[in-house]
Design a protein that fits this description.
It is built from 6 helices and 7 strands. By secondary structure, it is an alpha+beta fold. The longest helix is centred in the first third of the chain and has 9 residues.
Length: about 180
């Protein structure tokens, strides 16, 4: 079941990676799942990983483009763009915080290469995890986000805030737009 995140952590870790880059946050508000129009609702309101959901929806693999990365203690942060592999068209931007010691050495190395979407790495390795949707979001993009998504004018985008849980322990936080 979807749990509601507090206002303080709803945009985490997107707020952290934007602040670190000196980029203003877009306008974001929490919305109920039924307020998200189709097809965005079918892409966001589920407990599956986003990589497989996007690949099913677009009929092909998505590739990862790292926009920024940094480490803080045991946590690895990255902001990425997922693009259609065959066209390069952006389909999702995400900010993620991962506890690297929550993954084995081989998975950790793959994650740090920033070449393959996290969902595919975890799925292909048989890593057992759950992705919990914490909040659903409506976003009015800032100029930086408009550039990332090849937008000429702002229009509402939709996203979700999720947690990755492995063996009952949270090992990641994600904002997916």
């Amino acid at each position: 079941p979807t749990r509601r995140a507090s206002d303080r952590d709803t945009f985490y870790p997107l707020d952290v990676v934007y602040r670190r880059a000196g980029v203003a946050m877009p306008a974001i508000k929490i919305v109920a799942p039924y307020e998200i129009p189709m097809p965005y609702r079918s892409l966001l309101v589920h407990e599956d990983d986003m990589t497989i959901t996007l690949e099913r929806h677009f009929g092909g693999r998505v590739a990862l483009r790292a926009l920024s990365t940094f480490t803080s203690g045991a946590w690895y942060f990255r902001r990425v763009l997922l693009v259609q592999e065959y066209s390069g068209r952006p389909v999702e931007m995400g900010a993620i915080r991962m506890k690297l010691n929550g993954f084995g050495g081989r998975l950790k190395k793959q994650i740090l290469k920033n070449e393959v979407p996290l969902g595919r790495i975890l799925r292909d390795s048989g890593f057992n995890y759950v992705s919990h949707a914490m909040a659903f979001l409506a976003i009015i993009p800032n100029p930086e986000m408009m550039g990332v998504f090849w937008m000429r004018e702002p229009r509402t985008l939709y996203g979700r805030r999720t947690e990755i849980v492995h063996r009952g322990r949270k090992i990641g936080d994600i904002v997916e737009i």
